[in-house]
Amino acid sequence: MSTRTINNVQNFSWKRFMLQWEWMLIALIIIIFIVNSSISPYFLNFTSISDATMTFLDKAFIVFPMVMIMIMREIDISVGSTVALASVVMATTFNAGLPMELAIVVCLLVGALCGFFNGFLLVKYRELSAVIVTLSTMILYRGIAYMILEDQSSGGFPSWFSYFGWGYIGPIPFILLLFVILAIGFALLLHKTVFGRQVYAIGSNTTASRFSGVKVDRIKLIVFTLAGVMAAITAIFLTARMGSTRPNVANMYELDVIAMVALGGISTAGGKGKMLGAILAVFVIGYLQYGLGLINIPAQMLLIVIGVLLIASVTVTNLRVKGKFKTSSKSDSKEKVS
Amino acid sequence: MRKWWSFSFLLVIFLTVLVACGQQTGGSNEDNSGDSGSEGNDGQRHAVIFKSTGNPFGEKLMEGFETAITEAGDEAILRAPDQPTVEGQIQIIEELISQQVDSITIIGNDYDGLQPVLTKAMDRGIKVLSADSAVNGASRLVHINQADPEAIGRIQIEAVAEMIDHEGQIAILSATSQASNQNLWIEWMQTELEKPDYENIELVEIAYGDDLRDKSVSETEALLQSYPDLKAIIAPTTVGIAAASKVISDKGLQGEVVVTGLGLPSEMAEYIENGVSPWMYLWNPIDLGYLAGYAAKALADEEISGEVGDTFEAGDLGNFEVTETEDGTEVLLGDPFKFDPDNIDEWKDVY
Amino acid sequence: MMESNLIRYVSKFRELGLLGFIIILAIVIQFLNPAFLTLGNLSDMLKNTAILCILALGMMLVLVTRGIDLSIGATLALSGMITALTVSAYPGLSPFLAILLGIIVGSACGVILGLLVSKVGILPIIASLGLMNAFRGMTFWVGGGDWVSAYQMPDSFKGIATSNILGINTLVFIAIIIFLFFYYFVNNTITGRQIYALGSNPDSAKISGINANKVYMLVYTLMGGLSGLAGVLWVSKFASSQGDTASGYELTVIAACILGGVSINGGVGKVIGVLLGAFLLGVLDNGLPLINVSPFWQMGIEGVIILVAVLFNTEIKKKVEKNNRLRRVI
Amino acid sequence: MSDYVLELKAITKEFPGVKALDNVHFNLKAGEIHALMGENGAGKSTFIKVITGVHLPNKGDVYLNGEKVVFHNPKEATKVGIAAIYQHVTNYPDLSVTENIFMGHEKIKKSTRKIQWKEMHADAKALLESLGSDLNPKTEMGSLSVAKQQIVEIAKALSANAKIIIMDEPTAALTHRESEELYKITERLRDEGVAIIFISHRFEDMYRLADRVTVLRDSQYIGTWDVDGISNDKLVVAMVGREIKQLFPEKQVLIDEELLRVEKLGQAGMFKDISFTLHKGEILGITGLVGAGRSELCQALFGIEPYDEGAVYFEGEKVTIKTPADAVNLGIGYLPEDRQTQSLILQWSISQNITLSSLDKISHKGWLNNQEERKMSKTLAEQVGVKTNSIFNLASSLSGGNQQKVAVAKLLTKDLKVLIFDEPTKGVDIGARSSIYQIMIDLASEGYGIIMISSEMPEVIGLSDRIAVMCEGRITRFLDKDQATQEAILEAAMSKQTSKSQVV
């Protein structure tokens, strides 16, 4: 109909490339490495750095699905409780006579179930906000964990199980290896597949996505279930590191995870941000914490640092989104189909 | 507008961080005196990890530890996670392993949960001992026991019996038993109660206040409601005993219901003076830390190895011997110390 | 139509339903342990619920504006700690000044959050999450890791929680005053109604000339001030101040609001409802130990009740909307 | 004193990239009803917002009773007695009727600043009664029907002592009977000396009520006439800008076999008893007043809000459509009414928008192929004639018409057979309009069956092969192309009495 031709080759722009948030995070990591090794002689050696990764990577698995959840403009604050419940159920079923391999499967199932339940409630009751749903299940899941184990701890796992928490493959911690593999997997899933594209679409404009034939409900269910599964994986690693578990493990993990995702440049207004950013943020917070630990900074200072870092990073990401962001508004966060 | 606020906010943060850093390098903060030091190069470094920050018992214990280590001319590192969790302690231990400290003294948040990381520390040549709240025998070389659990359990029953003339209902208000100490003591209390001397004493309930103020208060109130004839509450936990005493004072039940157990003199001074708690017990956390400090030093110097029969000298406290327990070996500090109206004044400002 | 009338009735008198539930619960507990409905126990219960009520009322306004405040536990601890340190250093300080100090500290915390939400434009859940960490850290920091104990506090200060005013315990008295204030404020002042208008429809509010930022500042500052007040009362009640005071308490407060029928989507929330919501939790806290429910079951039971309340609410709302639609055409 | 209570001279309002008002004049006498007419996107809403102080004009002056005034915010306009009742009812659904009426000017006791509920409830009741309504002022606003909310809005304007009331498409969502009531209220207000600006694109409203009429077109002022002094045809030309027929390309009528058959479709509270058929190559126009259930019907066909009763046959087979994905899989596509919130993701590139609904075509086993995506979006963007230089430009950078073309291009990515266009030219400028019509005609001749929902009479008459007119949830009449006249359609759209026998 029209003779006009439209360009379909994207020019590479240095400016756009360099203005990415991820560079800021990489710069932060470099600064942290420099500062850490200058204030502590124990930081800059291979064992130290690989030991460090082992201490903070367990909760980082939840970061992957949380990135997707926050891109979809939702939130899940029940993940910490899910970790606790999955871990407790795993230990209990094992001590009730189930082989460890099966107990691990049960753990993953419990995680998946918890996540699915969150997703199900959100999809069934579209008018409910994710904050309220996951706040309720957060109390509920940990409550169930307490019902099962009360204040006891449960452990006595077979020795091979501790490999999850402490094992090395060559010089590389097993947990790091798995993290990298999953990180690549999730990054590809989010950025290179139809599924990922649809996740962004949902976060940018849920109604338009639904009208475009995107199966919004199904995708939300999948992502929330994934969050549950990843929480269960965290539970496995955490339990393996402790060799036993209790209902109060993984307390406040959700906050750490959300802090990492927010620092990773994922806009709280939905639709924006990259997996890489969040992965880098895991290392920023992890090494920062570890470095401050090496100079034996008191725990309370650490709390302040993390809190301020979270707010500062969100402020900066907000500045980048420039004015588009509105403080939570009903029409913003909840689609209206009618 | 929003932009302006954002920038000014970031500026405030930046300045605050600068100021905080400035203070940090000023390094007058006692808590982290450990970081200032590269002075004595051949000096050893000994770390102690308490359950969580903001606990006066812990502060005093670490103070004692630091005194001992300083006396020996070494450097002390005092750490605690912000929450009483195993995860937090694991992270700290990893950091200490990276720093290649010479010894780690742990006040465990869980009996078994620290075994993997402590084993790793020992594999890297770090001497590990526990104090106050033990970790299992496989994860430590020796445990510094504040007092014999048997003695702690029995002495509280004896005290209660004396307070209520060997007759009436009593209840126990415990913490959560995660650190397993309380459960062990309660077992010994129950054993002691089987003696014919106490046949008129009835233990009606063991309640758990979770070591939370509000919870301990409601549990105490529930006990008083459910058992109107209750004569005494034993609270072998510092939070529980203070909460229970507070409830009794507020209700004006002095003399009708007595409270005893294990409490901090500073927290309990008020109630010992007003008679709610005629007396109570605790060990001296400063001494406990002090002893742990010397034990850590002795282990690091390979003066002792944690075997039964080893002996070492702990500064002003004299000589101690390593003894056998059901799970591993231990060093016993001594009997619990009794705090009563006569001596509480001199102790309440100490810890 | 019978059914739809019933539904409309239920939704209108949600508070009555809640009250009914509390009464049934009370009867069950009473049946299992006769010590429950005694004067002594009821007054204990009131005292224990007073602080929760105060905080829940503040949280209600925050939720009505579609916000949330997770930092109140930390704010409570911080202002409690600062007040406790002050009274231990100056034992002659009048308790009124102590309360005032707590309110000022709390309000300052609230102002920071309000600025972050209104001026910087951070989502309330993230902003308050960050501040929660920061305030908690500061509490440990100003306290230097130590506790402030009963003997360090002057009697006048401890007396705040134990004394009586007009024959009513001071805590309860303060809670009643605040309740009355809120009742008046949200129902009978323009500012109070503006809070609801803003939560009900932010875009219209703009057209009506309501200054949204001012309202956000107001509710978060008010919330902070109430947390500060609660901090003083808490410390006085337990005669002890620690770094981890009221850790995680924000969730209980939010739960009370949700039970009381406050909608997290804004615009909806009644003072009476919130009061009843707090009472329900108070009855559970007080009653479950009395009927020997293991303390470890309490959290699970609370979780189930909250979830059921939330879902029940939405179902009712859906039905009402459908009925409205059915009445409309054809 | 001026003759006019309100006068606007040479108002120009620009938004980044768009001139929303260009040199517009307007005046209003006391005690008159002045109709403001124009097609969607002509600038009526912006004009209202200038009067009410929501927008500050870039050029031009506003005079109130002969004095120059500047409104910086809505409150200032309210203060001097200007009230607006907006098209999308802007109220507080969770608050009571009384509060909605008095929002912004609550009655308070001077000394205590206490809100005087009793007085307010009583006043609200009196106000509503004066408008002939027996509403309980304590009712929650959100539970009322649109018509009743409308009345509350009028009461709100009155309570603010408004001397000038602006009604923005108030009858759009009302039934005939409700409209009649509104007319009476409006006339009563006029007789009491209130000046009323009445915005509508229903000629019926204008003839029934207005004394004078002002027409805007494409952001420009066209003219002001006495209603008695202008013929219908002239008014249409004034609004549309040229003879209607010119806009619409010739379409060969080539109606083929049946594609879609709908039998007795119904959805509680929205529509009932809908039956029609759609053939290959046919454009079926569905018209009626806003709120007649047209959009709801089509959204039900597309699976957004499933229907409760009745059956849908696609190519002769009975099908169930529960989700949009079901509909798309069958071959039904939907162009939503509001492209900014329902169709496009504005912060995405043109290319990503075009491919969103058919990602499976540019992917292999779930993996996206960028090469394919670029090729596909380039082809389609060129096919519908989007005016842009790169497919990587953001959708938000396009004008309304070009955005709509992107939305149409989205539909073409799929192997669809039935296309539902919901108000395809809403807010689209004249130029882009004719190209969208061209696209629709072309699609029909390619064999698509097209359902077009539209409120624009000329477009319905000019494009459709058949027209179904809806009123209050039912199809009241089918008109063939040669029977279709504005009058016939209007009559059917307003007829409350549904003759069921006419349903084919």
Automatic annotation (TrEMBL), chain A:
Pfam families: BPD_transp_2. Keywords: Cell inner membrane, Cell membrane, Membrane, Transmembrane, Transmembrane helix, Transport. One of its GO terms (molecular function) is transmembrane transporter activity. The chain crosses the membrane at residues 21-44, 56-72, 79-96, 102-123, 130-149, 169-190, 219-240, 276-295, 301-321. InterPro entries: ABC_transp_permease. The keyword Transport applies. It is found in: Cell membrane. GO terms for cellular component: plasma membrane. It is a multi-pass membrane protein. This is Autoinducer 2 import system permease protein LsrD. It comes from Gracilibacillus oryzae. The lineage of its organism: Bacteria, Bacillati, Bacillota, Bacilli, Bacillales.
TrEMBL record, chain B:
Residues 1-22 form the signal peptide. GO terms for molecular function: carbohydrate binding. One of its GO terms (cellular component) is outer membrane-bounded periplasmic space. Keywords: Signal. Residues 47-302 form the Periplasmic binding protein domain. InterPro entries: Bact_Solute-Bind_Prot2, Peripla_BP_I, RhaS, SBP_2_dom. The keyword Signal applies. It comes from the Bacteria. GO terms for biological process: rhamnose transmembrane transport. The keyword Metal-binding does not apply. This is Rhamnose ABC transporter substrate-binding protein. It comes from Gracilibacillus oryzae. The lineage of its organism: Bacteria, Bacillati, Bacillota, Bacilli, Bacillales. The gene is rhaS.
From TrEMBL, chain D:
The keyword Transmembrane helix does not apply. GO terms for molecular function: ATP binding; ATP hydrolysis activity. Coiled coil: none annotated. It is a peripheral membrane protein. The keyword Ribosomal protein does not apply. It is found in: Cell membrane. SUPFAM superfamilies: P-loop containing nucleoside triphosphate hydrolases. InterPro entries: AAA+_ATPase, ABC_carbohydrate_import_ATPase, ABC_transporter-like_ATP-bd, ABC_transporter-like_CS, P-loop_NTPase. Pfam families: ABC_tran. Residues 6-243, 254-497 form the ABC transporter domain. Keywords: ATP-binding, Cell membrane, Membrane, Nucleotide-binding, Repeat, Sugar transport, Translocase, Transport. One of its GO terms (cellular component) is plasma membrane. Its main location: membrane. PROSITE patterns: ABC_TRANSPORTER_1 (PS00211), ABC_TRANSPORTER_2 (PS50893). This is Sugar ABC transporter ATP-binding protein.
